[in-house]
Amino acid sequence: GSTATTGYCASGATSTDDTKIQAVTLGTLSNSANPAACEIYTDYTTNNAIPVPLLVPGKTYSASVTHGTCGGFFAGYSKMWIDYHRNGAFEAPAELVLGGAHTSTGSVVSGNVTIPLTALTGLTRMRVVLNEGGTATQSPCGTFTWGETEDYTVNIVSTGGLL
Q1: Backbone φ, ψ for residue 93 (5° rounding)
Q2: DSSP state letter for 159
Q3: Where are the beta strands (DSSP E) in the chain?
Q4: Measured in Å, how far apart are the chain's first and last C-alpha atoms?
Q5: How far apart are CA 159 and CA 16, in angstroms?
């Protein structure tokens, strides 16, 4: 199922047709999906093949979401959230870190993410949603017809003189 055991809300598409997330980046996190696979929800939070990025409050990191296809070529909208409060919810606008329209398959929504000084340190969840036909009102929770949701773990760390 798409309900996280951590209490995060469920999110995902209801159809594996047409649209998916092809790639996600945030700082040192870089994940490119298997081009042949078409998922509706993917939990990468415990995938050891994807290194957990270290994010320092006050620092800025580049981020991107790449639109992929499962046979259809349709526009969409993607959003990225980070649970800075580590409370099991993705709260807008403070935790919405990236969003934008995809005009075609392969198009990339990118931007810079500055980790707020108020972010709680420790492991927390990042969620990426790409909804075919979606808009800026896309929620981090619930279902939509075509697209994909991906969850990741990020680590918010104080510098502690180590970085």
Answers
A1: -90, -10
A2: -
A3: 11-15, 18-26, 29-32, 41-43, 54-55, 60-70, 76-82, 96-102, 108-114, 122-132, 142-156
A4: 38
A5: 41
Q: How confident is the model at residue 6 (pLDDT cuts 50, 70, 90)?
A: low
Secondary structure letter of residue 87 according to DSSP:
S
Quote the tokens at residue 61.
């990191």
Query: Which residues make beta-bridge pairs with 110?
Result: 64
pLDDT band at 95 (very low <50, low <70, confident <90, very high): very high
Query: CB neighbours of 111 closer than 8 A, spacing ≥ 6?
Result: 62, 63, 64, 98, 100
d(C-alpha 144, C-alpha 132), whole Å: 8
Are 12 and 2 in contact by the 8 Å Cβ rule? The answer is yes
Residue 42 burial (CB count, 10 A): 20
φ and ψ of 128, to 5 deg: -125, 130
C-alpha angle 53/125/155, rounded to 5°? 30
Q: What pTM, to 2 d.p., does this model score? A: 0.92
pLDDT of 2 higher than 50: no
Computed over its alpha carbons, how large is the radius of gyration of the chain? Answer: 15
∠ CA 152-131-143, rounded to 5°: 80
